[in-house]
Specification:
about 375 residues; mainly alpha; A middle domain of Talin 1; two-stranded antiparallel sheet
């Protein structure tokens, strides 16, 4: 069944990218290029936009996976991560430029939500699912250690240190500080990618289970998937501003705090990768699940933060970075527990439950701070 999904391209894999592009063209022609129109027309567009956008996102991930089967690990994981990160940057930049209340803090809230969701929620589910099915699962400690080391440094630079700098008042960086941290973040993430793909590639290689299968797309299939991936990503980027308006209107309607917007964006971004990671854990491929999960958290900071910094400096928009004290405590607890969980190379059900308890606390405090 899984092999058929890739050997025979599902219709949704080409319908949704083209439909998303067509939706944007039609909506723009009707005069809705700057958001959603009020009244019945706006409601109809909002109802149609959500399934079209979600379908395009899943189609983009599907085509990224097809390309990944040709490139192999760990390049395959990087293709998927890069595709998702492009979507993430588009969503964050769209809300920042919309002037919404959550705009100045959205990058911080989204990065924080992604790190917490990945390291507690997604990791917890993967470990729990694998533990229930296989009792224990193993992975490469060297790879997990590399992920966590870089993740802790980048999270500290972008989410904690801004609270304690003296050049600017408040949880923000001055322009010079923002440039320095953005460059340092990009260089460190680039060094990690070099380690992952060249120097110590074996740390991240997925050991395929005995029942695994191999699929290598033809050159024609690769070209089709590459083209449709590009169409899907461009359409998603163009539709992101309209989705950002819907998210902000929904947040205001339910009376949720501004940081809830970042959580919604993070959930949307992580949904395709999350499903892929859980499927890998169910197939006794916890190493691949960790590559997807921890890799997405690392890419969120390593690629998204520099991009958002460029947008901020170019547009002169405010950018709030430092976390609240309660969030800093939860982040520190998450890093500590993750270090202990991935220190032995084996996980079981209890590890998953511990991570999920922290995730539940994070979710509760996001709506009841």
């Amino acid at each position: 069944m899984k092999a058929d999904r890739f050997i025979r391209m599902p219709q949704t894999a080409w319908i949704y990218p083209l439909l998303a592009a067509l939706f944007y063209v039609v909506a723009s022609a009707l005069g809705f290029s700057e958001g959603l129109a009020p009244g019945l027309t706006g409601i109809v567009l909002a109802v149609l936009l959500i399934p079209v956008l979600f379908g395009a996102i899943f189609a983009a991930v599907y085509h990224a996976e097809v390309i990944a089967h040709r490139t192999g690990e760990p390049y395959g994981t990087l293709v998927l991560t890069a595709a998702v990160t492009v979507i993430e940057v588009a969503l964050i930049a769209s809300v920042m430029m919309s002037g919404a209340e959550s705009g100045p803090t959205l990058a911080r809230d989204t990065v924080y939500a992604v790190v917490m969701t990945v390291c507690t929620g997604l990791a917890g589910i993967c470990i729990l699912v694998g533990g229930l099915r296989y009792r224990e699962q193993s992975f490469r400690v060297s790879g997990a250690s590399a992920y966590l080391t870089v993740l802790m440094v980048l999270a500290t630079l972008t989410l904690i240190l801004p609270n304690f700098t003296q050049h600017a008042s408040g949880p923000i960086y001055s322009s010079a500080q923002l440039v320095f941290v953005a460059v340092a973040t990009l260089l460190l993430y680039g060094a990690f990618l070099y380690i992952q793909t060249v120097r110590h590639r074996d740390y991240f290689i997925v050991s395929a289970p005995h029942h695994d299968w191999h699929f290598e797309p033809s050159a024609k299939r690769l070209a089709i998937s590459g083209t449709l991936l590009l169409v899907a990503l461009v359409a998603i980027v163009m539709l992101s501003k309209k989705f950002a308006v819907i998210v902000e209107l929904g947040r205001v309607a339910v009376g949720a705090p501004p940081q809830a917007t970042g959580l919604v964006v993070a959930m949307l971004i992580l949904l395709p990768e999350g499903i892929a990671a859980v499927q890998a854990a169910r197939s006794d491929a916890l190493q691949k699940a960790l590559n997807l999960a921890l890799g997405s958290a690392l890419a969120t900071i390593g690629m998204t933060f520099p991009a958002v910094a460029v947008v901020t400096l170019h547009l002169g928009k405010p950018l709030t970075l430092g976390l609240e004290p309660s969030s800093m405590i939860l982040l520190a607890l998450t890093m500590l527990v993750s270090t202990l969980t991935f220190a032995t190379g084996r996980t079981h059900v209890l590890h998953g439950l511990v991570h999920l308890v922290i995730f539940a606390t994070f979710l509760f405090l996001s709506f009841q701070p």
